[in-house]
Write a structure and sequence with these properties.
The complex is a heterodimer of chains A (792) and B (225).
Chain A: H1 2-32, E1 44-53, E2 56-60, H2 67-74, E3 78-93, E4 96-106, H3 110-113, E5 118-121, E6 132-136, H4 137-144, E7 153-154, E8 162-168, E9 181-184, E10 202-207, H5 213-218, H6 220-227, H7 229-236, H8 240-245, E11 249-256, H9 257-263, H10 276-303, H11 305-317, H12 322-359, H13 367-397, H14 401-406, H15 417-449, E12 459-463, H16 472-481, E13 485-490, E14 505-506, E15 516-517, E16 520-524, H17 528-531, E17 536-539, E18 552-556, H18 557-563, E19 572-576, E20 583-592, E21 607-611, E22 618-622, H19 627-641, E23 648-651, H20 652-659, H21 661-695, H22 697-705, H23 710-745, H24 755-781, H25 785-789
Parallel strand pairs in A: 4-9, 6-8, 16-21, 18-20
Antiparallel strand pairs in A: 1-2, 1-10, 1-11, 3-4, 3-10, 5-8, 6-9, 7-8, 12-22, 12-23, 13-22, 14-15, 14-19, 17-20, 18-21, 19-20
Chain B: E1 2-13, E2 16-28, E3 33-37, H1 44-51, E4 59-64, E5 67-68, H2 74-84, E6 85-88, H3 100-110, H4 115-128, H5 144-156, E7 162-166, H6 174-191, E8 194-198, H7 202-205, E9 210-215, E10 218-224
Parallel strand pairs in B: 3-8, 3-9, 6-7, 7-8
Antiparallel strand pairs in B: 1-2, 1-4, 4-5, 9-10
Helix pairs in contact in B: 3-4, 3-5
Classes of the chains: A alpha+beta (792), B alpha/beta (225).
């Protein structure tokens, strides 16, 4: 009867551990499989750029427009090159106009570089003509409700219709870019621009079989010197050598396709990528959980050994060899692991949808996956079973049958130093995980509560306001008239939206990179600062009444710092306007307090604002309590001006949260698996405390006869374990501090790890441990004395 | 000192009631050395456990040092025996993980005796039983007789008024057994310690001042020596 309980704890703990490990394995495999659907994945590289100008450094995932042609023409190692340019299109469906964000312009070679099979159409000609488009299966269904749509057209309001020349199978989830509309690059005039300083196109190189991409990379500096050199001369007034000597650089490199998802977070990514750090963290958690589960198994097996010692003795007397006994114990162990694995597998599949929700994944178990998961699982069962069983097996089989049958050994295992060490180990890991989770949550809270330099509450963002055309200002005025509205600003550049732009500003006309910055350059209107609740630390805001403000600038504190201005107001900056090299002077009229417009992993970079018109978005500061009514009013104003355009909006605080969704998910997932780890560790502790209490029944009886109260006994039993947990706390603290400190280093803006986190984690672990063992201890402390002391 | 009135102990086994003690009445005065004898299963140990308050009777009245034990709550009862009763067991029941010194010291911990005083008391006890040299040994390193000496020392260290011994010599050879019995007689004569022992041996019983014979849970005879 007792054994049943132990076996249940053993199998349950192991199953829980295996299930958690399986889920994490699914996750990790999914993350690692990004872009591997491409048959030539190993030969595909993206051309990235590194630019340093003065103090500004930028890493680009995009390259210059003419680079692709040059690579094909001049480099025999290159088999093919395809460019992708991200786009947003508005497509008419019935009476409605839908905004489609998953659209790209691409070279016809896209289908040669990437493995994107067409289910309709001819891939060799599909993207040759301007205004042709290859759509995805889902897009075809969405707009035509069927797959065979080649020859049909998509209507784009105000633009030429797109002729559909092909339908591709949906691009797999595990792709670093998603596209439902692949438009012919021929229809994008800019793609033919002969500009070697501008980075706009995600450029993918397919290397020839056997060619080494390092050789190609080695030729890049010469290529840049040759093509970009003259344009650098024009832009910053110095030749390439001088440019490099001044400490600036312009470099290109190749990023392997399969590294993009986990290792790339540069300017101009096609979509937000994952982080390899999370892969490491989750793998570590999985291994931890598995270890904890295995340790349970070992602990409980050896703890029970005194009960089984008699069995061993009898078997030995009956002629069983040691080898046979080891085999018997190992078989038992593997069998238990096998049962646990079956339960774990079923459990993992059952909770996979929930896990998908939390992890924002779309993982499924399919036939081909089973083909390798099941054998892997079987091998794991053998390995874990043997690992977990090997110590008990050798330990038990070594018993001397005479001693055992005399009952001599039965008391010999009480010390159990190894067992104590293993419990310490388990709890050290658990405490480590608790600390980690707390630090992650503290950082998330810090991010949410940090003063980001603008007020994101109660700000409505209307997207794609360019749909209003030249009536945007009218719309702004009308919305401003509504009661419940504080301020309205028109600008495509909001702290929480994606739209960004840079240009070069110099302190003088010499264009010396040392006197230049390379700031975010945002076109805003005069209501921008107050609508977003930003603060001016010096100077004044733009004013429409000042005619000269078209050549005025407001810069942020960082820009002022980069420029070395103590008092920036009144200073002049020169800007390169477009292609011509005329230097237009601007006067700084104000300095705005630094605000975060990128993830807090990044430092705030320089921002320069100009008074200009960019109707990408509208930002509306609301004060009304009756939000739905107000939203209806704003929407009807929109419909009055642009009846056929989609009204797309979001709230700035929600957009802000979205930036940290990865961290939040990470936090949630760690909480779940940390809890699992703790539960498993507690299962083991529960078993051990039950065993210890059972082992000490007689001792407890004696102590009670000698006058010990129940409380004293409880204290004694609990203290033994609490001591172990305390040691675990001491051991795990430095490790937890070190690793979480490292994790926090990834944030430019971070909370400190406070001592209370360790205090709290320790307290939590001790409380949990105490709760787990108190049941058994209480049972032992109140057991019948006469029974406990009866001599055998 | 001790008065049992109509004490019975029975338990239900299936439908049948099994009687272990049947209507026992017994008075023990301070300074007596009582030996309880009787065949196996006659209820000797149960009677001793009830006297020692380790077990509760099913029926009857139990007075110890003028306190109605049968009316006391668990906590009061344990306080009462903790202060006044010492136990010696056939199987010694020493704590294996503790050495001789610590074993003897243990009851003092539960009596909230201060550290310095504990030291003095244990030293006295080691001295008195001439086991100073063995204070650092563990029970498994001692002979049975030595273990029982430690057991008695442990029982006496809290200066109980009543010493209960359940076949204290049962696991010992005759020479060791005689030594223990001599010790009991000395304790009784010289220090006036009240002792109740359960024994199988006529010879050991003869060390006492009164012999009670139990048969089938009832007192068959009681004779002063």
């Amino acid at each position: 009867m007792k054994n049943k309980g132990f076996t249940a704890i053993n199998i349950g703990g192991l199953a829980l551990g295996l299930a958690a490990t399986l889920l994490i394995t699914f996750y990790v495999i999914d993350e690692l499989s990004y872009d591997r659907y491409n048959e030539n994945a190993n030969r595909i590289f993206r051309v990235d750029e590194d630019l340093k100008l003065g103090d500004n450094k930028v890493q680009y995932a995009v390259a210059m427009p003419p680079l692709a042609q040059t690579l094909i023409k001049d480099f025999p190692d290159v088999e093919n090159v395809a460019r992708i340019k991200k786009a947003t299109i508005i497509v008419k469906k019935g009476n409605e106009n839908l905004t489609e964000n998953n659209a790209i312009f691409a070279d016809p070679s896209l289908f040669d570089v990437f493995t994107l099979p067409l289910i309709n159409g001819d891939k060799t000609t599909a993207l040759n003509e301007p205004n042709t488009v290859v759509v995805s299966q889902s897009a075809a269904i969405k707009y035509f409700n069927r797959l065979n749509v080649v020859g049909q057209s998509l209507t784009l309001p105000g633009q030429s219709a797109l002729k559909i020349t092909g339908v591709i199978r949906d691009i797999p989830e595990q792709s670093h870019f998603k596209a439902d509309f692949i438009m012919a690059m021929a229809g994008w005039a800019d793609s033919r621009a002969d500009e070697w300083l501008r980075s706009d196109y995600n450029t993918y190189v397919l290397m020839r079989k056997g060619a080494d991409h390092k050789n190609l990379e080695a030729k890049f500096p010469e290529l840049i010197r040759h093509y970009s050199g003259s344009q650098i001369l024009k832009a910053v007034g110095m030749n390439y050598d001088q440019f490099e000597k001044s400490g600036s650089y312009f470099r290109m490199s190749l990023m392997p396709l399969t590294d993009i998802h986990l290792h790339s977070s540069k300017t101009g990514e096609l979509s937000a990528n994952g982080t390899v750090q999370y892969i490491y963290i989750f793998s570590a958690i999985a291994i931890f959980i598995l270890i904890i589960a295995c340790v349970n198994f070992m602990n409980l097996s050896t703890a029970r050994s005194s009960n089984r010692a008699r069995e061993v003795g009898v078997r030995k007397v009956l002629g069983s060899t040691r080898k046979f006994l080891i085999g018997q114990f190992l078989t038992e162990s593997v069998l238990v692991t096998f049962i646990a694995a079956i339960i774990a597998f079923c459990a993992a599949i059952t909770v996979l949808p929930v896990f998908n929700d939390i992890a924002a994944k779309n993982m499924t178990i399919n036939g081909p996956m089973l083909l390798w998961i099941l054998p892997m699982l079987l091998i794991s069962v053998l390995v874990i079973g043997c690992l977990a069983g090997i110590y008990p097996a050798f330990f038990l089989s070594a018993f001397n049958p005479v001693d055992v049958l005399k009952g001599k050994l039965a008391n010999g295992f009480k010390g159990g130093k190894l067992r104590s060490a293993l419990v310490v180990f388990q709890f050290a890991i658990s405490i480590f995980l608790i600390v980690g989770t707390l630090v992650i949550y503290q950082q998330l809270k810090y991010i949410q509560n940090r003063d980001v330099g603008y007020n994101r509450d109660q700000v409505l963002v209307i997207h794609d306001a360019f749909a209003l055309g030249n009536q945007t200002k009218t719309f702004k005025q009308e919305v401003k008239q509504l009661s419940g509205i504080n301020d309205v600003t028109i600008s495509g550049f909001l702290p929480t939206t994606e739209n960004r732009g840079t240009s070069i500003f110099s302190k003088d006309v010499t264009k010396d990179p040392k006197k230049s910055i390379f700031p975010q350059t945002w076109r805003v209107d005069e209501d921008y600062i107050q609508t977003l609740g930003m603060k001016l630390v010096a100077g004044r805001n733009f004013s429409s009444r000042m005619g000269t403000d078209s050549s005025a600038l407001i810069i942020n504190e960082t820009a002022a710092k980069f420029l070395g201005f103590n008092n920036a107001v009144g200073k002049t900056l020169y800007r390169n306007e477009g292609d011509d090299i005329a230097q237009k002077p601007y006067t700084i009229i104000g300095v705005v307090k630094d605000f975060n417009f990128e993830s807090m992993r990044e430092n705030i970079s320089p921002v320069v604002m100009t008074l200009d018109y960019d109707n990408g978005n509208l930002g509306i500061r609301l004060k009304s309590a009756n939000l739905p009514a107000l939203m209806d009013q704003i929407k009807s104003k929109w419909k009055a001006i642009a009846p056929s355009k989609q009204f797309v909006y979001s709230f700035m605080n929600a957009d802000f949260e979205a930036t940290y969704r990865a961290e939040q998910r990470m936090g949630q997932i760690s909480i779940i698996f940390t809890s699992l780890a703790i539960i498993i560790a507690c299962l083991g502790l529960f078993g051990l405390s039950a065993y210890a209490a059972e082992q000490r029944t007689k001792e407890i009886g004696i102590r009670k006869v000698l006058g010990a109260s129940i409380t004293t006994i409880l204290k004694m039993l609990s203290l033994d374990f609490i001591k172990l947990v305390f040691i675990a706390l001491l051991i795990s603290t430095p490790f937890a501090w070190y690793f979480m400190h490292k994790w926090l280093q990834g944030f430019a803006y971070r909370a400190d790890i406070s001592w209370w986190i360790f205090g709290l984690s320790g307290m939590a672990a001790i409380l949990i441990a105490f709760a787990t063992i108190s049941f058994q201890s209480f049972k032992a402390a109140t057991a019948n004395l006469v029974k406990s002391l009866r001599s055998e | 000192m001790l008065s049992l009135k109509n004490i019975s102990k029975y338990y239900k086994n299936g439908g049948a009631q099994v009687n272990i003690l049947n209507n026992i009445s017994l008075d023990v005065d301070a300074g007596e050395f009582v030996s309880i004898m009787g065949p196996s299963g006659s209820g000797k140990s149960t009677l001793l456990n009830i006297i020692g308050m380790l077990d509760e009777p099913s029926d009857g009245y139990h007075y110890f040092m003028n306190e109605p034990v049968h009316q006391l709550k668990e906590k009061q009862r344990s306080a009462l025996y903790k202060r006044n009763i010492g136990f010696v067991f056939q199987a010694y029941h020493l704590i294996d993980e503790l050495n001789v010194y610590e074993n003897i010291e243990t009851p003092l911990l539960y009596h909230d005796v201060k550290g310095s005083e504990r030291k003095a008391l244990v030293a006295d006890m080691l001295d008195r039983f001439q086991i100073v040299g063995k204070k650092d040994l563990f029970p498994s390193q001692l002979s049975g007789g030595q273990q029982q000496l430690v057991g008695i020392a442990r029982a006496l260290i809290v200066k109980p008024k009543l010493l209960l011994a359940d076949e204290p010599t049962g696991n010992l050879n005759s020479k060791q057994g005689e030594e223990i019995m001599e010790l009991f007689r000395k304790l009784n004569k010289e220090e006036g310690m009240t002792i109740i022992q359960v024994t199988h041996s006529e010879k050991n019983a003869a060390y006492g001042t009164r012999i009670i014979n139990l048969l089938d849970g009832a007192i068959a005879s009681s004779q002063q020596i």
